[in-house]
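Today's session is about reading a structure prediction critically. Students often jump straight to the picture, but the first step is always the sequence itself: look for stretches that repeat, for charged clusters, for runs of hydrophobic residues. Only then move on to the predicted structure, which in these notes is written as discrete structure tokens rather than atom positions. Here is the chain we will use throughout the hour.
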Amino acid sequence: MHKIPPGTWIVVADGTHARFFLNEGTQNTLRLKQSDLMTASDEAQGQGPSGRRPPEASQEQTDEATFTKQLAHRLNTAALRQAFEHLFLIADPKTMGEIRPQLHGETGRRLIGELTKTFTNAPLEDIEKVLKARL
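Below is the predicted structure for this chain, in token form.
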């Protein structure tokens, strides 16, 4: 596992919201600070998910896929604008599986690690702890 350099974006997501953290630590320490929270917005209703959805998909599944598309778009835009140098993703298995193919090549090049785990409601200390255990 690579170290998580200072300035790395750590994004903790599920199908309904994403927490954005910034590593404000040093090369040898990890210290996260939450910088943003992204939730499914009413403005985005009607955008729809990326790709085709099975006809038996529930509205909740479609909404989660739409949110994942919006999150991927935000990360891709930020990567192309050079807003971050490194990215670490933590997401539940379903969200991780849906977001991977939507990441732009530039975003993928900045991805230094990922953890498939449901952690969106976890306290900051627990997120830091699991990341430190992987260093």
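Discussion point for the tutorial: The chain has one domain: 9-45+58-134.
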